[in-house]
């Protein structure tokens, strides 16, 4: 049964984009068609504003984006913050010191900027792939105000070991595997689900009128919140289990199939 959903939340990497970070014509056109039929399209991504904007622009859209896994909800047109969940330098100190001791690459984010104090060839390649232009900071300098996310980047075995170590900590922040090669540390209330719920409430939209599509563990909450939560075929089994439907993979235009099947 097709419903003209009022709000459509779309994850970016592994969902909207192929593994080569390409937006296919079929997916682009289907998203535009859904928007033309009255749905508000909201990108819900672990990316920051500056690396998510090219995707929104490639879709030919503008408006609100949920970035940094829900830590910041942004007005893409005005480059302003609608709402954010901040973290302090003191709260991040243990995670940062752990990474410095272990030689793990990390960055810190405000709503607008991503900052680094060292880089590896692998990290440089990753930033280029995601169209991220990190800003350098002095290691000895205080971290800036307005922090919302701390991200570790590394190999699968490396991140598995980090998760195992951190599982023994009793910290005030949460961490989430936002991709195979990323762990994000954030405010405990910062999730895509929380940000999407808040936005729907502001818009006066019931959850039954929300369609969400995603592919990874950080998408589970928003898939459960939405009236229709759809997981990509390339999702881990836990994500598929949390969804109402499973569509084709991001290599097979799964978003386009979902929108054609359920959004009109």
UniProtKB/TrEMBL annotation:
<dbReference type="InterPro" id="IPR000150">
    <property type="entry name" value="Cof"/>
</dbReference>
<dbReference type="InterPro" id="IPR036412">
    <property type="entry name" value="HAD-like_sf"/>
</dbReference>
<dbReference type="InterPro" id="IPR006379">
    <property type="entry name" value="HAD-SF_hydro_IIB"/>
</dbReference>
<dbReference type="InterPro" id="IPR023214">
    <property type="entry name" value="HAD_sf"/>
</dbReference>
<protein>
    <submittedName>
        <fullName>Sugar phosphate phosphatase</fullName>
    </submittedName>
</protein>
<dbReference type="GO" id="GO:0016791">
    <property type="term" value="F:phosphatase activity"/>
</dbReference>
<dbReference type="Pfam" id="PF08282">
    <property type="entry name" value="Hydrolase_3"/>
</dbReference>
<dbReference type="GO" id="GO:0005829">
    <property type="term" value="C:cytosol"/>
</dbReference>
<dbReference type="GO" id="GO:0000287">
    <property type="term" value="F:magnesium ion binding"/>
</dbReference>
């Amino acid at each position: 049964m097709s419903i003209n959903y009022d709000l459509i939340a779309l994850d970016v990497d592994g969902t909207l984009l192929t593994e080569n970070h390409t937006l296919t014509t079929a997916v682009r056109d289907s998203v535009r068609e859904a928007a033309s039929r009255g749905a508000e399209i909201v990108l819900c991504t672990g990316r920051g504003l500056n690396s998510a904007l090219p995707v929104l622009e490639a879709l030919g859209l503008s408006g609100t984006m949920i970035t940094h896994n829900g830590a910041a909800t942004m007005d893409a047109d005005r480059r302003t913050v609608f709402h954010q969940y901040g973290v302090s330098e003191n709260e991040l100190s243990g995670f940062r010191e752990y990474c410095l001791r272990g030689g793990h690459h990390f960055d810190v984010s405000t709503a607008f900027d991503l900052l680094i104090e060292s880089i590896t060839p692998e990290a440089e390649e990753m930033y280029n792939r995601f169209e991220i232009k990190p800003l350098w900071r002095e290691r000895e300098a205080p971290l800036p105000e307005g922090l919302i996310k701390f991200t570790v980047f590394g190999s699968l075995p490396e991140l598995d070991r980090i998760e195992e170590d951190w599982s023994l900590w009793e910290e005030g922040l949460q961490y989430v595997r936002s991709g195979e090669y990323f762990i994000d540390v954030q405010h405990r209330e910062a999730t895509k689900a929380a940000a999407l719920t808040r936005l729907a409430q502001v818009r006066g939209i019931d959850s039954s009128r929300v369609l969400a599509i995603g592919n990874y563990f950080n998408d589970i909450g928003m898939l459960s919140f939405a009236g229709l939560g759809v997981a990509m075929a390339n999702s881990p089994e836990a994500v598929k289990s949390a969804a109402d439907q499973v569509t084709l993979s991001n290599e097979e235009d799964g978003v386009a199939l979902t929108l054609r099947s359920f959004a009109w």
